[in-house]
Amino acid sequence: MSEQGRTRRKGYEKGDEEEHPLYRYVCDREEQTGFPLLHTHRIFLKRRGLDSRLRVLILVLACSVLVSRLFSVVKRGESLQWMMVIAALLYLQWHRCRVEQEAVVVMPTLGVQLETVYCSKSVKRRFVPLHRILLPVINEAVTPTTCYSYLALLLRDEARLTLTFLHVRPPLSMLVPIRAALCAAVEQPSLQTAP
Amino acid sequence: MDTQQKCQMRHRVLMVSDFFYPNFGGVENHIYYLSQCLLQRGHKVIVATHAYGKRSGVRYMTNGLKVYYIPRLPFIQQDVLPTLCGSLPILRTIFVREGITLVHGHQAFSTLCHEALLHARTMGLRVVFTDHSLYGFADLGSIHMNKVLQFTLADVHQAICVSHTSKENTVLRSGLNPEKVFVIPNAVDTAMFRPDPSMRPCGTDEIVIVVISRLVYRKGADLLVEVIPEVCRLYPQVRFIVGGDGPKRVRLEEMREKHGLQDRVDMLGAVPHAEVRSVLVRGHIFLNSSLTEAFCIAILEAASCGLLTVSTLVGGVPEVLPPDMIVLAPPVPAELSNAIGRAIELLPQVDPFSMHNRMKNLYSWMDVAKRTEVVYDQSLRSDDDDLLVRLSRYYACGPWAGKLFCLVVVINFIVWCFLEWQQPAKDLEVTPDLPPPQAFADELN
C-alpha cells in the first residue's frame, strides 16, 4: 500500500518459513520514495495451547490455596470465596505483566528503539542513539537450567551489554536477520538509495 | 565427499569433567589435547565443566573448541555439589542443542561427570568413561567413592584407563567387565618440551636434580624431606631445584634450614605450566617421589626434555618409560637415595636429544586420539538397551545398593519425561556447527 509516497512492506522472513511453536517474527519496512524510514522487527509471543493455560490455572489455584491457608483467620464458609478472589487477583496481575511482543525498530541515521508491549497494552520503550552503538552481537547465555542465544548491543563507554529482547528468547534464525539489519544501520549510517 | 559431509559422519562428542581450564593439571591437559586432536580429525567436540569464578557461559578456545562453563560453583576440591537430577535440565539442553551422540566423562572424582553420564544414558546416548587415578579400597572415603563408581560404570558402554595398573584398579573397584576397558596412555607435547643442555651448569661437574610436583602427601613430599639431605651428604656436587607448592612446603623449608642447604636446594614455589620446561632444562635428573600414580605425565615431560628420571616404583609408573630412561626404587628414603646414586653413574651415557626423539616416536596426542576414536566406534556398535535392561544391571550391584541405584535411575527417568513434556526436544534450538579451521579442512581434504 502506498500513502503520500510512502510504502509499507510487510515481510515474513525466516521466522515465518520455520514455524516456531513459541514465537512469530514479523519484519516491517517503511520507506519513502526509496529512502528507508523505519525497519521494525517484531517478535510476538504465540498464545499457547490448552496445556499452557491449564498449567497457569493450576499454578494460580495452588497459590490461592496457599495464601488462603496462610490467612486462616477467615471463617470456613468464606474460604472458597476468598480463594476465588485471590485467584482472580493473581491471574489479573499475571496477565498484566505478560509480554505480548517485543520489537527492535531501526531508524537509519538516528538510532534503535527497543520496545516491550504488554498484554495490558502498556509499552516500555528505550532509545539508543546510533553514535553510541559499537556493534550488535549474538552470544549464548548459560543459566543453571538452560542455555539460549541472545542479541545484544555493545555500547561505547559502557561495560554492560544492552539486550534487545528482555523477555522473549527467539531462536537464532530470527536473531540473525535482525542483527544484519542493525549492522547495516551501524556501519552505514548515511541514507541509502533504493536499488 | 566434501568436508562438511565428512564431519557429519564423524562423532559428536561432549567431554564432561569438573577439571578443565583455567584449572591446571593432568586431567585438564588430557581433555584439552585430546579434544584438539579429535577436532583435527574432523569430529565435533564440546567441553562442559563448571564455572570458575566469573568465567561462566560459553567460551571458545583454540581452533573453535567450545566450552560450556555451567554456572554451578565448586563445592569441595573443585567438584560441584552432587544434586542427581539438578543438572539434568542444563545438560539435556546442551545434548540437544549441540546434537551430541556420545558423552565422554573424565575422572572418577568428578561429580559433574557422574551426573552427566547418568543423564546421557537416560536419554539414550552413548557413554564412555576415562579414569585417570588410582584409588584405595580400605578407608571410608574409598568405599563410598568405589560405590559411586560402581553405579556409574554399571551402565557405561566403554571405559578407558591410562595404564594397565589403572585398568586393574578400576575393574576391581567397580566390578566392570574387563573386556569393556581399553588402555590408552596419556601423551606429551614434545614440541613444547624440548631439551636445551645450554641451560645446564657448564664448566663444572655440578649435577642438578629437578623436582616439580604439588607438595602434598600423595606426591611423596615427606619422602623428599628424608632423601634430599642424604643425597646432599653423599654427593657434594649435587644441587636440587624444587618447584611446586602445597601444604608440605613448610616441611621442606624446615629441612633446608635444619641442614643448612640454602645454597644447594632452590625452592621456586608454584611454577606455571608454561614455565615448567624452562625449569626442567636446567637439570640433569628428574626426581618423582609420588606414593601413587596411575600414569605420571610429569616424567614424560622430563624425558622429553632429555632428563634421566628417578622415580618411585608405584602404580603405573613402570609402564611409562623404557628401562634405560628411568631408574625405579621402592618409596623408601634409603632405596630412593641409592637409585639417585645409580642415576648419577648413568648420566654420561644419556643423550638428551636422542631421548627426546625417542619420546616423539613413543608418545603423541594424535595417536591417543586415534585410539580413542576406536573406543567411540566400539561404543556405537554396542546394543541400545531400554530402561528395564539397564535396571537389571543396576539391580545386580548389591542387595541394598542395587535397589537404591534402581530408584535413582527411575527418578531420573521420570524427571526427564517431565522435562520432555514441559519443553519437548524438538522445540529446543539446535546451534549451527562452526566450520573447521582452514588448516584442518585442508588436511581432511
TrEMBL record, chain A:
Phosphatidylinositol N-acetylglucosaminyltransferase subunit H conserved domain segment(s): 104-165
Q: Which domain of life does this protein belong to?
A: Eukaryota
Write out the entry's keywords from A to Z.
Membrane, Transmembrane, Transmembrane helix
Q: Name one Pfam family in it.
A: PIG-H
What residue ranges are annotated as transmembrane?
56-74
InterPro entries in the cross-refs: PIG-H (IPR044215), PIGH-H_dom (IPR019328)
What pathway or pathways are given for this protein in its record?
Glycolipid biosynthesis; glycosylphosphatidylinositol-anchor biosynthesis
Q: What family, per the record?
A: Belongs to the PIGH family.
Q: Supply the name of the protein.
A: Phosphatidylinositol N-acetylglucosaminyltransferase subunit H conserved domain-containing protein
Q: What is the organism lineage in this UniProt record?
A: Eukaryota, Viridiplantae, Streptophyta, Embryophyta, Bryophyta
Automatic annotation (TrEMBL), chain B:
Question: A Pfam family for this UniProt protein?
Answer: PIGA
Q: Does the keyword rRNA processing apply?
A: no
PANTHER family the UniProt entry points to: N-ACETYLGLUCOSAMINYL-PHOSPHATIDYLINOSITOL BIOSYNTHETIC PROTEIN, PHOSPHATIDYLINOSITOL N-ACETYLGLUCOSAMINYLTRANSFERASE SUBUNIT A
- What residue stretches are annotated with the Glycosyl transferase family domain? 204-345
State what protein this is by name.
phosphatidylinositol N-acetylglucosaminyltransferase
Instruction: Tell me which InterPro entries the record gives.
Output: Glyco_trans_1, PIG-A/GPI3, PIGA_GPI_anchor_biosynthesis
Which UniProt key words apply to this protein?
Glycosyltransferase, GPI-anchor biosynthesis, Transferase
Signal as a keyword of this entry, yes or no, is no
Q: Which residues form the PIGA GPI anchor biosynthesis domain?
A: 50-139
This enzyme's EC code(s): 2.4.1.198
Q: In which pathway does it act?
A: Glycolipid biosynthesis; glycosylphosphatidylinositol-anchor biosynthesis
